[in-house]
Amino acid sequence: MPTLSSYLIISAILFSLGLFGVITRRNGVAVLMSVELILNAANINFVAFARFGGMDFSGHVFSLFVIILAAAEAAVALAIILNIFNNLGTVNIDEANQLKQ
Amino acid sequence: MNGEFFIFGLVALLTIVSSATVVIAKNLIYSAIALLFALLGVAGLYIFLWADFIAVTQVLIYVGGILVLIIFGIMLTHRITDVELSHSSIQRGAGGAVVTIIFLGLFSMISKTTWYSASAVEPDETIRQIGRLLMVDYLVAFEVASILLLAALMGAALLSRKID
Known about the structure:
The complex is a heterodimer. By secondary structure, chain A is mainly α.
């Protein structure tokens, strides 16, 4: 049986990789993908603590809410990125530094 | 029990390698495909944690919904003939240093703590329990989530509409 620590370490690795992507990526869509990695790391923690805390299903419900939030966030963020692309002709977030052209 | 450890290691390795590919790959399409495998690996971890419903939801919503949305986003913001479909990263050294420090802090915290672990039996079904919690204990949050999804739907439609 894998222990709780192994899940937590996998989750920490996922979180660190996602944070690395958010810090270093220039493309807006790539930043969005990294944010999804961070949300997944949080979800693994929720479900792992639910499993090793005596199978408490509240953790499962919370991870469902995180998935719902991720869906809403992805839809709105992609709409914003498409708008940035239409207005400025780029999706590089370090070049998108004005509110209107 | 050895086989279980072996498969767990494979799933964990798949998740970690794919996640690394997501943030390192030069080509954005490669990142998206690697994200697919990372999400599938996380779904496999959920199955190891006896959370079958969450695993199915993960595959349905993340792989079926969010990933398709992200690939749409890539396709709509790049011309397919563009040489510039690849994209660059900035400040890899500094970012890597900061992230390594954060990870080492997390790692030492996780390995130093003696985690309380309650004994549990594998449940026959998880859906009934989750449904009861959603409809009784977390009803308000459930309804707020539906309002949030409606608002996000309308917001996304409004934002991506051409405004004359």
